[in-house]
Amino acid sequence: MFEVFAIAATTNATSTLPAATTAAITGLTTGGLIPFGGSALVGYIIGFAIKKMTKWLLIGLGVLTGLIFLAVQWMANNGYIQGVKWHKFGNNIAEYGQHLATQIDFNNLQHSVFGTLGIPISSGLGIGLLAGFVRTR
Predict the structure, then answer these.
(1) Cα–Cα distance, 9 to 6 (Å, whole number)
(2) What one-character DSSP code corresponds to residue 73?
(3) Which of 42, 71, 120, 131 places its Cα 20 to 30 Å from the Cα of 18?
(4) Residues in CB range of 134: below 8 A, 6 or more apart
(5) How far does the chain reach from its first CA to its final CA, in angstroms?
(6) Rounded to whole angstroms, how far apart are CA atoms 137 and 121?
């Protein structure tokens, strides 16, 4: 809409807008303020959604982990299992976590997402994502 207005303002000979205002409107729509603001809004929404999903995911994982721990302790107390080798269990989980961490390619993420969006869009998205994630309510 702004681009149509800016184009119409530059082509209309009877326009009452000064040339500087017309140039400013054209610069805002094509230069970076509109993409920056739009991507900041999208980033805010994404950050807020990630915060809410992470909260409920962590609550669910905490409850599930607690239930599994209670079941294992109940089975050990009633003689269904003799003992749990917790040190071996912890070492296996740590090894698996390290294996998963080495499989993530952060360089590809940087070049594919932020490299192709451009500075106004990626900076607006990053600022909006941070603002949405740290929102208090």
Answers:
(1) 5
(2) H
(3) 120
(4) 47
(5) 34
(6) 26
Distance CA 111, CA 96 (A): 27
Is the model's pTM score more than 0.70? Answer: no
Whether 14 and 103 have beta carbons less than 8 Å apart is answered as no
Is the model's pLDDT at 2 over the cut of 90?
Answer: no
> What tokens does 64 get?
């599930």
Other C-beta atoms within 10 Å of 17: how many?
A: 15
- Sequential DSSP letters for 11-62: H-TT--S-HHHHHHHHHHHHHSHHHHHHHHHHHHHHHHHHHHHHHHHHHHHH
Domain boundaries, the chain: 1-31, 35-133
Residue with tokens 């805010």: 44
**pLDDT tens sequence across 48-99:** 888 889 999 999 999 999 999 999 889 888 888 886 688 898 899 999 989 8
